[in-house]
Hints:
It contains eight helices and two strands. The protein is mainly α. Strands 1-2 form a two-stranded antiparallel ribbon. The protein starts with a helix and ends in a 7-residue tail after the last helix. The relative contact order is 0.18.
Amino acid sequence: MDQDLEYRQQQIQDYKRILLPLLRYLPWLEEKSGTEVSTLFRGEGLEEHSVVFPVYDATLMNFVREASKSELMDRNYLYVYSRRGIRSHDDERRLIQKADIRDWDMLRGIFSKYVLGGRTKAILWSEAVSERIFYLVMKQMKEIVEYWDKPIDVR
C-alpha cells in the first residue's frame, strides 16, 4: 500500500514538472478561447501573384513550440482517437471534462493531435484555441495534479 502511495506521489510530481512550463499560457488560452488567433497574409498589392498563408499569434507559436518539446507529446495520438471513438470536438470536450488521473494518456493524445498535427495542417493550432481544446486539456491536467498535490499558481 505504501508503495502505491509513493508511486502515485512520484507520478504526480513528474506530471507537475512537465506541466508547469506550459501553465503560464493558461490565462492566455482562456482569454483567447472561442476567438481567431491567426490572420491571412495576402501580400499587399501582389494578390494575383502571391500565395495566401496564415500568420499566427506570437504567444500561440511560443506555446506550440514549448509544448512540442515537452514530454506531453504522444506520437501515437491516433490510437487514442480510435480506441476512445473520438470523432468530434464535442467528443473531445466531453472526455476531457470527465478525465481523471487514469486518463492522463488520453489527455496527452488529444493535446498531441493538435500540437503535432498542426505541423502539417497548421489550421489545427487555431482550431484548438477557438474550440477551447488547448485550454480544457491544460486546465484538466492542472486540476488532476492539484487534486493529488497542492494548488498551483499560474501567474
